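Q: Here's a chain of 359 amino acids. Please give me its 3D structure as tokens.
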Amino acid sequence: TLFLHSKQRHQIAVDCLNRMQKTLRNGCRKYPPHQAELEAIQHKTTQIFHKVYFPDDSDEAFEVDSSTRAKDFCTSIATRLNLKSPEGFSLFVKIADKVISVPEGDFFFDFVRHLTDWIKKARPSRDGVTPQFTYQVFFMKKLWTNTVPGKDRNADIIFHYHQELPKLLRGYHKCTREEAIQLAALVYRVKYGDDTSHFNNLQKVMREVVPTDLSRSMSAEEWRKQILACYNRDAGKSPEDSKISFLKLVYKWATFGSAFFEVKQTTEPSFPEILLIAINKLGVNLIHPQTKEILATHPFTKISNWSSGNTYFHMTIGNLVRGSKLLCETSLGYKMDDLLTSYISLMLTTMNKQRTLRR
């Protein structure tokens, strides 16, 4: 420190001193610098602008540096987008065929470096050529515990609507035909505004607005007629207001804000072998893949243990010794594990805060 102080006329000494003070405040990195950091230094700058993608297909560049933690990154994104709060949001890194959530306490570039190294080890080089893995960073809602449509307009418009729509179209929710017609009219208005000409291309419109499991419950022409009638009743409504109306309708369902996983279960003979699992603020929900009936809901307070690997996700409900087990075959066990850990961590943090307030 004394040496750097004595050389303060040199810009690099000033930068080094600032970084040292930041390290003392924020803690040390665990991994060597990422390639992006090295390239910045080689170009005699410490400024790195990183592109972040959002669910509404927009993106923006944000400045990050070697001491930026994921939580800081999330806060600066939430501030730029005028969100009410960054609570429940997370950064996700998409690399190879995986999308992995960045723990909020991790240094951003530490996480990316570690993840890239891990993927390289898992996929060894061919013919002596080490594959180069590029990655993308996404910012999305992860935990929906306190999400109420209408409370944060920007979050609804940029995130909640665009994250919920694909789940509806894939047929994951238990949705009546009447609800599907109302939702389809809203989705059409979001996509095309006041232009009704797209109703002429019926097959394309059906794929874009009607849940796959319900599309054959009426003829395509009947769907068109009923959606158009519902659409006309909402004449004058803006696409943004249509997004919020969509969310308010979906919010009534117990499966709102869920992450869905199709798994093969091997422990419960009374349940179908192929099961739909929805993890949301209520806990872990087991759903019949055809009828969409919720067969069981296991609140987080009843889940005592869980583990995951490349091909499985295991969970113990109730007592560790006498409790029941759920054994699943899935390639997405890492996502289920992370979501469960994050929801339970948030629940425990909330409970501790409430205890502190009571004192």
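Q: Can you summarize the key feature?
A: The chain has eleven helices and twelve strands.
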